[in-house]
Specification:
Structural class: mainly alpha
Distance between the termini: 34 Å
Number of domains: 1
Membrane topology: Multi-pass membrane protein
InterPro entries: MFS, MFS_dom, MFS_Efflux_Transporters, MFS_trans_sf
Number of strands: 0
GO molecular function, one term: transmembrane transporter activity
Keywords: Cell membrane, Membrane, Transmembrane, Transmembrane helix
Helix content: over 70%
Pfam family, one: MFS_1
CATH superfamily: MFS general substrate transporter like domains
Shape: globular
């Protein structure tokens, strides 16, 4: 695989760390800013909304910019947003900083997916995209647990400062390793927009959105869930998050190979596995060992979804993949915002933390049903 994929993976690592670390430090942020846990959960939703809005807008508005330089601009804005989060004096400022940080997210993964695929060709595009996303999944093994431990032990502001430092490293790596290649040029805007006239594009976006809504309904509140039902402390929480990340990393790499081999079956396997893992987590969460094992399985299933969902949308879009790939990230983060909001509603209704993963299982099954229906319609 080309070394340029390493630079994309470093950027993905930074983005993954900032997106998912909020889940681990959510109780600490809530206590420090004197808000409730569901209110602190809106910081997750705010990030997701920033991705949803920013991804397509940036992809459309930056078409004349060379792909390499666009990646550099996106990582610079991302880094500035994390610096803002690190110096946030109150809830409102932190909310705004999270939105700024989120705006480049969708476009980075959208443009990065296209660049990764162009670097290797069609036969290995799924694996190349998985290598880029491995940065995000490795962030869940190393970056997020480290940020969780740092944020809970020394102050959540330091967690965001550390992530800003990784953002600087990503800028340097992209500048040095990613070629400025004409093959990365985006197609005409009319071609990009025409992709959204295809029903298969919308259905593929819906499948990924429903599947990951189930993940985020559960994982957004993983800190208070494990604290309340399993009795873990800060160290145990960091271990649990690392196990989720390990499963996510392995699932992502295997999912990339499955997507290259048989794309639609890869989606069915991923979504079915996700529904099973979420349902099992509701049963296993009261025991520390079984909770950790099923949380790792949940990460594995979620990892399977990432490359297959991204590849499905890119292939459905045909010759106009950039905007569609960015829209996939918007879909994932509609899932992020919607899953977090639905999870907050479940908690607020008094249904308990086990209700979160049961809701997630239902959403994953809905995604599987939509995938099967989409396959029938596209024949």
């Amino acid at each position: 695989m080309p070394i340029a994929l390493l630079a994309l993976a470093v950027g993905a690592f930074a983005i993954g760390a900032t997106e998912f670390s909020m889940m681990g430090i959510l109780p600490t942020v809530a206590r420090d800013l004197q808000v409730t846990v569901p209110q602190a959960g809106y910081l997750v939703s705010a990030y997701a909304i920033g991705v949803v809005i920013g991804g397509p807008l940036v992809a459309v508005g930056s078409r004349r910019l060379a792909r390499k330089y666009l990646l550099l601009v996106l990582m610079t804005v991302f880094t500035i947003g994390n610096v803002g989060a690190a110096v946030s004096p109150n809830y409102g400022f932190l909310m705004a900083a999270r939105v700024v940080t989120a705006v480049p997210h969708g476009a980075f993964f959208g443009v990065g997916s296209v660049v990764a695929a162009k670097l290797v060709g069609d036969q290995q595009s799924g694996r190349a995209i998985a290598v880029m996303f491995s940065g995000l999944t490795i962030a869940n093994i190393v970056g997020v647990p480290a940020a969780t431990a740092l944020g809970n032990g020394c102050g959540w502001q330091l967690a965001f400062a550390a992530i800003a430092g990784v953002g600087v490293l990503a800028i340097i790596a992209i500048a040095i390793l990613v070629p400025n290649n004409d093959d990365f040029a985006a197609p005409p805007m009319r071609t990009e927009l025409h992709a959204f006239a295809k029903l298969e594009v919308w259905l593929s976006l819906g499948v990924g959105t429903l599947g990951f809504a189930g993940v985020f309904a559960t994982y957004t509140y993983i800190g208070p869930t494990l604290e309340s039902l399993t009795g873990v402390g800060p160290v145990g929480l960091s271990v649990a998050i690392a196990l989720f990340g390990l499963g996510l990393a392995i699932g992502n790499l295997i999912g990339g190979r499955l997507a290259d081999r048989a794309l639609l079956p890869a989606n069915y396997i991923a979504l079915g596995s996700l529904a099973v893992a979420l349902a099992l987590f509701a049963l296993a969460v009261h025991n520390r060992l079984t909770a950790f094992v099923t949380l790792s399985a949940l990460g594995f299933a979620a990892g399977l979804v990432i490359p297959s969902a991204q590849m499905w949308t890119v292939r459905a879009a045909g010759d106009a993949p950039t905007l569609a790939a960015a829209a996939t990230q918007s879909g994932f983060n509609i899932a992020n915002a919607g899953g977090a909001a639905l999870g907050g509603a479940v908690i607020g209704a008094g249904l308990g933390y086990t209700g979160l993963s049961l809701l997630g299982a239902v959403l994953a099954l809905a995604g599987l049903g939509l995938a099967l229906a989409s396959a029938r319609l596209s024949r």
